[in-house]
Amino acid sequence: MNLNEHSVRIKNIDAIQVFDSRGNPTLEAFVELENGTTGSAIVPSGASTGQFEAHELRDGDKEKFLGKSVYRAIENVKGEIRVELVGKDVHQQEEMDQLMIELDGTKNKSRLGANAILGVSMAISRALSNAQGKSLFQTLTDGGGTLLPLPEIQIMGGGAHAEGSIDIQDFMIICTGAESYLQCLEMTFNVFHHCGRLLKKKGKLAGVADEGGYWPIFDSNEELFEILLESIEGAGYSLGEDVQLSLDIAASEFYDNGRYHLNLDNRSLTGDQFYKVISGWCKQYPIISIEDPFAETDTLNWKRFTKEFGNKIQIIGDDLFTTDIKRVKEGKEDKLANSVLIKLNQIGTVTETIECIKQTQEFGWTPVISARSGETEDPFISHLAVATNAGQLKVGSFSRSERMVKWNEILRIERELQEKAEFIGEKIFSFAM
Predict the structure, then answer these.
(1) 343 catalytic, yes or no?
(2) What are phi and psi of 416, to 5 degrees?
(3) Is residue 373 marked as binding?
(4) For the Enolase C-terminal TIM barrel domain, which residue ranges apply (predicted)?
């Protein structure tokens, strides 16, 4: 489809308030081009948020949606952002993202709101792909991508995603023995449902957590390991070969005044004591990946842990890096991790997100594209994972439609790619420090 300059200029930008998977307000942005093509995108929201993340602008009026409405962010889209970008060529994603950053004028996008800026940034990407008559994964990066991601899927959820029912936020599996993306999903299906039956049988099932994993009832954090290992073996898979464990500790959530407070175990631990707990788990169980094992300010233990385990375990920085290329560079220099969790709304534009992914890959580290606990029906990150050949995708569990839409979108992308689709599974892991 040949497009002249006039046909790809932005005609209008709009936004409305919609709702995420927790029923909280969020923002959907719309970009209309002069040739009639449109693009839209919905912004997700996190519950376990790092102190270095871009600012999500909410109204704070307790009489409207308990202060969570986003009408100010919407007005910023319809006002200042619209005025700045109308008439711009939709091909100029990087230029427009930078214009919005400069228009905001703060370090964390707090004036206009990272949710306002990101919504428009994502919608611009969608409008371009629609104008070109191509799928989003083909237009997000030059030449697109072909690598299908290895899924990292939650089986049981805790922390801020389950009202602190357990201290650890995510107990996940990675099907390293799978030979295809579809086989990963099949193996996860079997483990997930076996775990559900097991929890129900033992009277340990409270419901479903924010990201779709089971909401368990336990007396200690270690109990989850036993249930998860029993679920994997009960589903017919070999521990450490077919299936390995992945943890998101989200340690900043229970770190205060230099101590880690494990409410479930009724323990308050020093950094050194908590290090022994985490390192003990990594030695005892088949853990291939661990995210935020320590608070983002506890860099001494990050460095110590990476030195001991960085050549055999994927150590992911989430709150530590917040998809910020400057923080990733500092982490590389200080040898704090070997992987970066990638979340669009942590940094606030598509351009900055892709730059962070590329920098991570240049370091020889692994980028892990991730959803948020407050998710939407928008499968943008599925396309982002393939477009950048990131190799891994983490969207929560194997239930709830806002999660399944991301897994299903990869199947559609695979169908479109046909013989060009690649899947390298466990080989994606790199332990460069």
Answers:
(1) yes
(2) -70, -40
(3) yes
(4) 145-431
291 is in an annotated binding site: yes
The residue annotated as part of the active site, out of 68, 204, 343, 406, is: 343
Integer Cα distance of 427 and 176 in angstroms:
9
Sketch out the chain's domains with CATH numbers.
6-133 (3.30.390.10), 150-428 (3.20.20.120)
Count of residues making up the chain: 433
343 is in an annotated binding site: yes
**Residue 211 appears among annotated catalytic residues:** yes
Cα–Cα distance, 294 to 305 (Å, whole number): 9
The catalytically annotated residue of 53, 152, 211, 352 is 211
> Residue 161 is which amino acid?
H
pTM, full prediction: 0.95
- Given pLDDT bands bounded at 50, 70 and 90, which one contains residue 79? very high
- Tell me whether residue 238 is annotated as binding: no
For the segment 311-315, the average pLDDT, to the nearest whole number, is 96
User: 421, 148 in Cβ contact below 8 A?
Assistant: yes
Please tell me the distance from the alpha carbon of residue 250 to that of residue 411, in angstroms, as a whole number: 30
DSSP class of 141: S
Closest CA to 254 of 159, 336, 157: 159
Which long-range contacts does 334-338 make (Cβ < 8 Å, 24+ apart)? 334/299, 334/303, 335/303, 335/306, 335/307, 335/310, 335/433, 336/299, 336/302, 336/303, 336/306, 337/302, 337/306, 337/310, 337/365, 338/306, 338/310, 338/314, 338/365, 338/366, 338/430, 338/431, 338/432, 338/433
202 CB contacts (<8 Å, ≥6 apart)? 227
Say if residue 248 carries a ligand binding annotation: yes
**pLDDT category of residue 166 using cuts at 50, 70 and 90:** confident
Share of the chain above pLDDT 70, in %: 95
10-19 β-sheet, strand order: 10-19, 25-33, 38-42
- H helices of 235-349, in order, are 271-284, 299-309, 325-334, 344-347
The two structure tokens encoding residue 57: 């602008």
Tell me whether residue 169 is annotated as binding. Answer: yes
Find tokens 């860099």 and name the residue: 299
pLDDT digit string, tens, across residues 33-63: 999 999 999 999 976 566 789 999 999 999 8
